[in-house]
Amino acid sequence: MPIATPKQFADMLDAAQKGAYAYPAINCVNLTTLNAAMKGFADSKSDGIIQFSTGAGQFASGLNHKDPVTGVIVLAEAAHRLAEQYNVLIALNTDHCQPQKAASFLDPLLDATEARRAKGENNLFQNHMLDASALPLDENMEISKKYLKRCADLEVILEVEAGVVGGEEDGAAGTEDTPEEHLYTTPEDMVAVHEALAEIGRFTFAATFGNVHGHYKPGAVKLRPEILKEGQAAVQEKYGQDAEFDLVFHGGSGSLLEEIRETLEYGVIKMNVDTDTQYAFTRPVASHIFSNYEGVLKIDGEIGNKKVYDPRSYLKKAEENMAARTAKACEDLLSTGKSIL
Ligand SMILES: [Zn+2]
User: Fold this and answer.
1) Which of 8, 261, 275, 334 sits a CA distance of 20 to 30 A from 21?
2) 95 an active-site residue?
């Protein structure tokens, strides 16, 4: 089955919202990580989301170019071809894009989707994130409105963010010094976001409730999932049951399973997974290199062992372990066995 159509992706989000589960959104950077994420979803009979950061795009376009647009288009086109082999739905997203990068990054990607649609083909991306959370909320909503309008015309869902996610990930979001009150989205913010965007088109919302990018020991992150509950209640009280947000959970590494599960009850339908799958990818590579030390290196004039320095020998192990970590994310988010295909 190919990449989800706009209708299938909307149905995925509706099914998750109704069934109180969420999709892992796995950051990928090359063919091996794409294959790992797809294998993890397929083995779990779970639909899922694959996403690319601007940094992944730069990496994928090659060291001489470092062009985020070319890189993510190559990754997305490859994903469209690879996904045809599987019996689950995969949706494609681009991760954090700050307002100053939007014209050079989101615009050409939306143009690429527009060109595909003109040929009767599926959208290149089903979802894009515009992260204007560093701006005051009214300015954030002004630019978010502009992009949501264009996305809606192309049946692309826009992910927006308000408030600051702590930690750091590809240059996104806050710092250690972020004042604590900014780490939590208020119910008033959630109402304001609904009022600004709901009539324009479908969007998802990355609210902040103490989440931080990067990696922390379990328990180190002080999440307050009730922030999400309070925000949803404020919006639904004013605008009815249907005003419920489709929420996105950023910066979940190091969160306790019970906290992750609690967010599912408050409308989280997508959780970004990057740090944990990065480690899952690299762990078996380290093991391979250490345990085949005399084969991967040419020591004292010897010739090493081609079988163990062939990149496939360790990248297969990396793919296998990242697929297993993706499957664990499906379990954590209760999407296992729930493909709507
Ligand atoms: Zn994020």
Assistant:
1) 275
2) yes
CA of 206 to the centre of ligand 1 (A): 8
Neighbours of ion ligand 1 (CB under 5 A): 250
pLDDT digits (tens, 9 = 90+) for 63-80: 999 999 999 999 999 999
Q: Which of 14, 47, 67, 95 is catalytic?
A: 95
What is the model's pTM?
0.94
Place of tokens 């069934």: 19
Question: Other CB atoms closer than 10 Å to residue 316's CB: what's the count?
Answer: 15
pLDDT band with cut points at 50, 70 and 90 for residue 306? very high
> Would you call 164 helix, strand, or coil by DSSP?
coil
pLDDT tens digits, 16-57: 999 999 999 999 999 999 999 999 999 999 999 999 999 999
Residue 145 Cα to chain centre, angstroms: 21
Domain 6-332, classified CATH 1.10.10.10, yes or no: no
